[in-house]
């Protein structure tokens, strides 16, 4: 199976990812190098692709949405760089390559992460400057930046990461686990879909559908990632398998076992699929992501 | 000497600082606690005060500029929390209290910093949502958020922090030192003045004056801070004196000695003062900041 749209979005992101980084002074080349190292370490670009897909689904231009697509990949990358730090998950490898702090040192990894997060907002607000006299397009951009900030901030991704860290080594608790997944992964995924939809000029009906789609997709995404951590091969995943169990992470496989986790993930993918029924013709890339995740556990 | 405006701005910031933090779920109370701990640890609030002063100087409403004033204090605070980490400056105390990582652990300090930076942009973009149908005021807000992102990002504060870190233990180099100060401190200070000015609806002439004012004030601010690190008392500063020398930091006092550093700081303060000549009547708080800095070294 293949998706021409998915591939097109991925090429756009890979090609233009460095374009929206700020013009850093040559004296700060080490910072740019550390940021670029992690950005080009071979991510799947799922979040920016979803943003571009949602934008086109709503009638917008993917090219015009690129600053926001790249910004969410900067945010995703900063979160991984910080997450890998010795004081957090202490991961030596990420996407098959040594993690940032192993190459550049911990201090630089902290600053490269801060730089990526700042660059995301610099890219989005800089893009807004181009639309100061086009109030309709400016509004869409402001809404997109806001939903991204919400989904990746203290009532989204960061909240999830804190709970994830605090749950380590404790008896897994189903309610807490749901809270972690909803925030750590689903809030961010949902926000990129809503951001893309805003940029494309979505109406309330599509926003509601994409919200349901994003939340279910995001939850499935996290559970499947945790399943792959148990059953996947380290080489394919770019990091050692079994890391979660070793770190006594709170995960679905740990709580319910592999089979029940797979069933639950399939149920979530079905709900996501149902949410975008009726939009299939213009949402090839979105259903491709669902198919891709489904294949991983079947 | 006293400044009614300065005191009024400081009260506004102290009173409203928590108001623009996102509504965090009670399950993430530990995150909010860590963020609030550092926010309320008694900062001088110089940056938000300068923003409010610049806004009123340009005819704007300080109350309407509060989300941006608080956002810059969130950014300032995140940078201190990360800067104090063992892998960075390894400071046990900040503003007279144990630093974040000593109370909450390193992982939480990283996330609290990330949370504060994210909260800054969430506050600013959320405020923009209130002005979607007031294109003039929306534009001002977009410009303010952009200059803040630029001044605190990879061609501003973070660039300076990277160079500062890299310069540690090396022979001090005057050109590099200037680069560090321009970015680490002056770029941020300049950006808050420009942000305030944009929010107040400044014209190009005032923006140019405030840019010169901000850069010179920012450089003086950093040099005086470094002088105080050598001659000041630990108790007053809230951290041990002599920390820079111990860390072999690249500073003006280390390069030129105390007296020459004082002379240079006074020269910079004069340039800053000259830049806002003609605006004195409406810039009482700005000249108060200059006077305050001058008194520290005289």
Question: How would you summarize this macromolecular structure in one to three sentences?
Answer:
The structure is a homodimer of 298-residue chains. With 298 residues, chain A is mostly helical.
Plain-language structure description:
The structure is a homodimer of 298-residue chains. The radius of gyration of chain A is 18 Å and the shape is globular. The first copy, chain A, has 298 residues and is mainly α. The first copy, chain A, has a single domain, classed as Orthogonal Bundle (Farnesyl Diphosphate Synthase). At the A-B interface, helix 2, helix 4, helix 6, helix 7 and helix 8 of A face helix 2, helix 4, helix 6, helix 7 and helix 8 of B.
Q: Widest sheet of chain A: strand order?
A: 1-2
Return the CATH architecture of chain A: Orthogonal Bundle
CATH topology assignment of chain A: Farnesyl Diphosphate Synthase
CATH homologous superfamily of chain A, by name? Farnesyl Diphosphate Synthase
The total tally of domains of chain A equals: 1
Largest sheet of chain A: 2 strands, antiparallel
Number of helices of chain A: 15
Radius of gyration of chain A: 18 Å
User: Which geometry of chain A do the CA atoms define?
Assistant: globular
Query: Care to count the β-strands of chain A?
Result: 2
Intertermini distance of chain A: 15 Å
Which band does the percent of strand residues of chain A land in? under 5%
Mean pLDDT of chain A, to the nearest integer, reads: 93
């Amino acid at each position: 199976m293949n998706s021409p749209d998915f591939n097109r979005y991925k090429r756009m992101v890979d090609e233009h990812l460095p374009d929206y980084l700020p013009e850093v002074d040559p004296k700060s080349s080490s910072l740019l190098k550390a940021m670029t190292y992690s950005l080009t370490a071979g991510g799947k670009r799922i979040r920016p692709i979803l943003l571009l897909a949602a934008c086109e689904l709503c009638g917008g231009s993917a090219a015009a949405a690129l600053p926001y697509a790249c910004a969410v990949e900067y945010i995703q990358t900063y979160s991984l760089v910080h997450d890998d730090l010795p004081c957090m998950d202490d991961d030596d490898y990420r996407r098959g390559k040594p993690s940032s702090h192993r190459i550049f040192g911990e201090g630089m990894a902290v600053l490269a992460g801060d730089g990526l997060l700042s660059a995301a907002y610099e890219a989005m607000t800089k893009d807004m400057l181009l639309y100061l006299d086009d109030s309709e397009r400016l509004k869409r951009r402001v809404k997109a930046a806001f939903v991204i900030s919400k989904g990746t901030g203290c009532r989204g991704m960061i909240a999830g990461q804190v709970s994830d860290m605090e749950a380590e080594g404790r008896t897994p608790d189903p309610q807490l686990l749901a809270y972690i997944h909803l925030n750590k992964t689903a809030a961010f995924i949902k926000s990129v879909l809503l951001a893309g939809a805003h940029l494309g000029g979505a109406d309330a009906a599509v926003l509601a559908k994409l919200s349901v789609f994003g939340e279910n997709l995001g939850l499935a995404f996290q559970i499947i990632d945790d399943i792959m951590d148990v059953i996947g091969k380290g080489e394919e995943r770019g990091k050692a398998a079994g890391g979660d169990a070793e770190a006594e992470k709170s995960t679905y496989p740990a709580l319910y076992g592999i089979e029940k986790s797979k069933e639950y993930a399939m149920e979530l993918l079905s709900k996501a699929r149902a949410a975008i029924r009726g939009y299939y013709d213009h949402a090839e890339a979105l259903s491709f992501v669902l198919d891709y995740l489904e294949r991983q556990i079947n």
